[in-house]
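Morning!

This is the sequence you dropped in the shared folder:
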Amino acid sequence: QLLQASLPLHKHPYEAFFLLGQIYSNQNALEKAVKAYEDSIFHNSEYFRPLNKLSSLYYQMKEYKKAYDMSFLLAQKFPTPPDKIPDLIRLSIINQRYEDINNYLKIFKEFREPDKSTQISLSAGLAVLGKYFFQHNDHVKGEEALRGAFEFSNGKYEILSNLLVTSEEFNKLPLLNELFESVDLDQWNETV
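The structure's back. Tokens below.
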């Protein structure tokens, strides 16, 4: 109540709205939390904390389009943390924004010590992206995506199986054969 009473005291109470959103979120009053975070952003669209919380909240509420839009806005304004990449890939796939996966590949390649689970998520996303490109007759980009998926798969069976199905469907088995011939299987991490 004190926090709500303080809102009119400042011309742009973005921090107060953010804190109110935190309180509502902790009380599991998600709709009120969303409204408070949105109000915070209305007063300061550059404030990272409500943007980030709102993105996570939309994802939690399964409002994937809104979660995608908020995540996209965040990525334009702030560096993408490595632990967010798997969620961003999932959101891109759910929202059929497959080409965004290439952007995450660029971000991933900048990491000094990439996380294995992020690598696997990226590989799975690239496999989906490759199929998308083949379905739209862009075979050059499709092959590039499959190469990336293979490279980052770390030998994970589910991804390799997906690559095999896609390669069969689009007559790309020679590419897959080439990829298998070029890899040192001992380099793949067996713990994945």
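Headline: The chain is about 70% helix and 0% strand.

More detail when I'm at my desk.
O.
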